[in-house]
Amino acid sequence: ITLYNAGYRKAEWISVKDRLPERNGRYLTHCLIERQSLVCILHYSKIGGFNEGTVTHWMPLPEAPKMKGE
Predict the structure, then answer these.
(1) 34 Cβ partners below 8 Å, 6+ apart?
(2) Could you report the per-residue pLDDT of 32-48, keeping only the tens digit for each?
(3) Which of 67, 65, 68, 69 is nearest to 5 (CA)?
């Protein structure tokens, strides 16, 4: 999967073996849940980690699209 952020730069997956997010929040993740490989949006907290499954990789969520009139 190749994703691009709002500046049209390629967003790279970050392995949880390399580093974890610095802030609590929601992240796009690649995870294994009941032997299935899934891309999910999961919550991360410094105290509890990711809230579900076995996360292998993560990246910040892209910005929401701008709507007309915003």
Answers:
(1) none
(2) 878 888 999 999 999 99
(3) 65
